[in-house]
Amino acid sequence: MYNWLELEDTLLRYEYIRSDREDAPTLVLTHGNGFDLTQWDEVVQLLRNDYHILRYDFRNQGRSDSDSTQLTWEILIHDFEKLLSYLSIKDIHLVGYSMGGNFAIELARRQKSYLKSMVLISTAIYIPKNIAIQEIKRRNSWVEEEVFRNNIYHLIQNLCHPAHDDKINRIKRMYDQVEQRTYIDYFNLCADTAIDYDFEEFHQLRVPTLFLAGEFDPLYPPRLQMVYHHYFPNNRIFVVPQASNAVMIDQPEVFSEHIRLFIDQSYEVNSGHTYNYTEQLNRELDEMFEAGIRQRNEILYLELMNDFKLVIDGKVVEGKWSQRKSMQLMTYIILNKSVTREQLCETFWPDEDITKARSQLSVALNHIKRMVERSANKPFDNYLDIKRDVIELKVNPKIDLFELMNQIRQLEKIDDIGVRLKNALSLFNSLPKNFNRLIYDDWFVQIIVDIENRILDICNVLLQYTSTKKERADLLKIMVRYNAVDFEYIEELINILKDVKSKEVEYYRKKALDVYK
């Protein structure tokens, strides 16, 4: 039987079922975004004899309602603690699904003494930052109601295994209760929090934790949840067979049995006996996972097509890049990923003796270090590993010039000439009129020349297949842009522009005069 608790601006729907055992532990079941307390129906029937059970709808989800649209973890925790106080509940074991799992983590991070253990099911704890940012943008684009519902219904198909109509329709009915804006607000709260999780902080959490993963969960696959296992010091993990994301709906009996085992054993005291091999192995595995995740989370983007811009974790690295050959040096290191000090000295200070060149290099690296740390608010060591003889990039960078090269390679592979022409015009017309003119070093100029030559080669081939004067003129404009000294291109382009009475004739006539000069 459902009850209601009226708070200042919120009406919470809840159900509190007391076991016949007065001393039974209390289980709190928290639902996922878009779900409601009924997602636990089967589980409640299986566990109600052994535990007092509290389940409720978060504000503005399910049947709970609120006059306020404000949403923070503090607000949700305030609602929850009011409910605990009202029911005189002192200690809890929290079982959280998806967003409900993030809620449990927030209680643990705040060291709530009433939280005795937590079970995290299909919970977003670590997602590579670049993927997370893309997904946040994608879901926030679901503005129109029809688009939102269509995408949600597609998502629902992945939550159960097998995806029988009765299970899918049941979940769909839950999602139909939530408004688009509410769903997005909760999604953003969880996603923004997960992106900023500090894994070092998780090492300090002492709350016994069980991770439950569905064998066939495509959203949070078991191998992803295995990563979490290395960051929570007092935890275990179980993969539920023949289940997808909503394991409590797919396999309620298996799910409930492992809840029992976990909670019963969470009261047991560890014997304290350890084996050296195991300790060493765990330390090594922890270091491997931490280094890998740290590297994947650091996003370094280098813009070179227009001007020079270094972006780290979305922040532009500001500073005096024109000093101490910093711009050229950082570009060279990022492009090559691994370079020797000797290689850098020969490239940037070829006329200096090796001692002075090494000194200049050290000064330049320290200058870059200060700019990066000041802008990114993170240690320079997160990005560069500066050893005695070798300097290596520790993250996988994104470089706009390399992305362009990849797009050009894809163009060259297109067999359909019409498609290749259309894609080439779209790509090349989006490029700057002049590539980077800030770096004049031979090694960089050669990269630009190679790109321009490949663009010219593609345009030369496509000229043979143009069917209209406009297509031909568009290709010739690109060729003139990247090879302004070839009078043949300019002359043909001027003739076409004359025929179509274009106002651009004068502009290209001036270019022709510049070539003659």
Automatic annotation (TrEMBL):
InterPro entries: AB_hydrolase_1, AB_hydrolase_fold, AB_hydrolase_sf, WH-like_DNA-bd_sf. Residues 25-249 form the AB hydrolase-1 domain. The keyword Hydrolase applies. GO terms for molecular function: hydrolase activity. Keywords: Hydrolase. GO terms for cellular component: membrane. It comes from the Bacteria. This is Pimeloyl-ACP methyl ester carboxylesterase. It comes from Aquisalibacillus elongatus.
